[in-house]
Amino acid sequence: MPAAQGTFPGRPARPAEGAAGRLSPTVNFALRIGFYCVLCLVCSALAAVACLLVNGGRTVKNMRIIRAVVRTFKYFFGLRFEVKGLENFKVEGPAIIVSNHQSVLDMMGLMEVLPDNCVQVGKKELMYMGSVGLIIYLGGVIFINRKSTSSAKMVMSEVAKTMVAENVKVWVYPEGTRNCTGDLLPFKKGAFHLAIQAQVPVIPVVYSSFTSFYNPKTKLFTSGKIKVEVLPPIETKGLTPDDVTDLTDRCFSTMRETLFRLSGRPSQAKDSS
Ligand SMILES: CCCCCCCCCCCCCCCC(=O)SCCNC(=O)CCNC(=O)[C@H](O)C(C)(C)COP(=O)(O)OP(=O)(O)OC[C@H]1O[C@@H](n2cnc3c(N)ncnc32)[C@H](O)[C@@H]1OP(=O)(O)O
Ligand SMILES: CCCCCCCC/C=C\CCCCCCCC(=O)OC[C@@H](O)COP(=O)(O)O
Q1: Strand partners for 119
Q2: Ligand 2 centre and the CA of 266: distance in Å?
Q3: Which of 181, 199, 189, 202 is nearest to 248 (CA)?
Q4: How does DSSP classify residue 186?
Q5: Residue 3: pLDDT band by 50, 70, 90 thresholds?
Q6: How far is the CA of 153 from the centre of ligand 2 (A)?
Q7: Would you tell me which CATH number, out of the four given (3.40.50.2000, 3.40.1130.10, 3.40.640.10, 3.30.230.70), belongs to the domain 19-265?
Q8: Which ligand is nearest to the CA of 45?
């Protein structure tokens, strides 16, 4: 399906434009997001059957099936990914991967680079999204209750043990919520506690800002290019809980600098927000 383009304020619809060309940005946005949700729901139901038939239940191996399906979604929305640094995922053994989180569309960027044997940490509410909840469950996503620090901490410390025992990488969105402002929110510390508890490296992944083609506030959603950079692993061997804040700050600065560079944002803007 070609990427539907809205008619934006200030530009009259041309006679050659079809019905999609005359749609207001709001309708265009709603249609495209609606289509994305339907695509996720339908593909999740089909992928769930495939996961059950091939792997028999909840396992990280299902992520290969989910990844293969989601990687086709970009063509429906005219999105292109330019990926650098994939070799940085080739660390021996488990690792914590941290990345910026802008939108529900991030699932496409996630699957574009997702290494094998990698599960994500997600909010528990995702489980109740029908077939999408089912596929996320089958893929082995670790569910946390963000409203209860103590229960989230308990889940994370269990993960610290199992990820090492089972040689699994864990993908965390350290902002803890979606943020499509072109900047980073302050990082939560769970991912960094986890990395230090498990004594595994942190691998930052940065996606360029979506704001040039996607903005829910202004109802913008067109085709676009997303630059992705997998940064070199940051070692945590020998670090203790006292080092969590330093590690968090270090990852935050590196990722923010990379985000601005990839998004073509002038460096003097770094300090302004
Ligand atoms: C086929 C079609 C498919 C369709 C499609 C499929 C897609 C298939 C992929 C799905 C993919 C899903 C993707 C989901 C994406 C999200 O759901 S993002 C939202 C959920 N994820 C997160 O929230 C992760 C990030 N959050 C954290 O890490 C947070 O720290 C926690 C663990 C939730 C705790 O929350 P908090 O209490 O608000 O956070 P924070 O202020 O950091 O911590 C409070 C205190 O506890 C301490 N603390 C935190 N964690 C710990 C810890 N582990 N140990 C000890 N102390 C700790 C902190 O140090 C802090 O203490 P101080 O240092 O201030 O003294
Ligand atoms: C029977 C129930 C039917 C429910 C229908 C639900 C329809 C939604 C269908 C598809 C949407 C595709 C979503 C793919 C997964 C997105 C993961 C995600 O991006 O979650 C947001 C979470 O990181 C942070 O949440 P907040 O920004 O704090 O909020």
Answers
A1: 170
A2: 32
A3: 189
A4: P
A5: very low
A6: 23
A7: 3.40.1130.10
A8: 1
